[in-house]
């Protein structure tokens, strides 16, 4: 079945990453000076390299350090790569770090918060489906991207509709597998985000539930502990996060139409739709980085408690244990 294949795929990803981590991890950990010119950051991106693209678009990609971007289907896989030592810094929603730290032995810390849009976070049904709302999914097979925003907002939407998680047949699927399952008829609905939702709509899918008002809009930057031990790597991470904020400010300053072309080329959607989505996203919640504060930690704690309630976490998790303010001073300076 597709959902079983998705779990095998995650394992395969880690198997492939481990040799790479062994080959590259030593150089990253050896860096201890404050000179960023010798730093190479291995950074994660979800769906496509939007961060790299926006930096290039705003002509802010001329970093004094090197950045190697790797694409993953979800933030959960990025955190798996951090745990495996194959990434130095990951960008994700609030959820992946929770599960990456659930064993009590995380090798990373959340170092910054990026406020972002919660649009295109939806539960969709295929063309021709008789289902019109979340309540109509009782007893149905629903695919969802496990340990991500999709997992969280699907659970919350079910509660709002008076349903329990056990009232549906929930199947963990990666975004690409979920789209194939939705179109192939092996699931009745799919909870996902980003490019997969855009593609689903292009293929005729309809929205029956949205996470837009459920999710906080906090997207987290997590860095390996070894990165935080290096002044140069810390400085590079802070600079990279700040550059992305500045790049989006440039986009909002009258350049939405031009950047929409870049988005359309990479997501294979009509230019008009790409521009409409971009404008809506930046209007809803402009992409801006923030330093770590108590409010962000509290927001993630609320999410972790929901997963404990759901039973996805066996025990209570104190999220403060994997947050740090170590990057705050560098990030303030860079911003």
Tell me about this structure.
- With 335 residues, the protein is of the alpha/beta class.
- The protein folds into two domains: 2-117 and 217-334, Periplasmic binding protein-like II (D-Maltodextrin-Binding Protein, domain 2, 3-Layer(aba) Sandwich), CATH 3.40.190.10; 121-210, Periplasmic binding protein-like II (D-Maltodextrin-Binding Protein, domain 2), CATH 3.40.190.
- It has 13 helices and eleven strands.
- It has helices spanning 2-30, 50-57, 75-84, 95-100, 149-160, 175-184, 194-202, 225-228, 231-252, 256-267, 271-284, 294-310, 328-334, and strands at residues 40-46, 66-72, 89-92, 108-115, 121-125, 141-144, 169-172, 189-193, 206-210, 218-224, 288-290.
- The strands form three sheets. It has a five-stranded mixed sheet, with helices on both faces.
- Strand 1, helix 2 (50-57) and strand 2 form a beta-alpha-beta unit.
- Helix 1 (2-30) packs across helix 3 (75-84), helix 2 (50-57) packs across helix 9 (231-252) and helix 9 crosses helix 13.
- The longest helix has 29 residues, at 2-30.
- It is globular, with a radius of gyration of 19 Å.
- The termini are far apart.
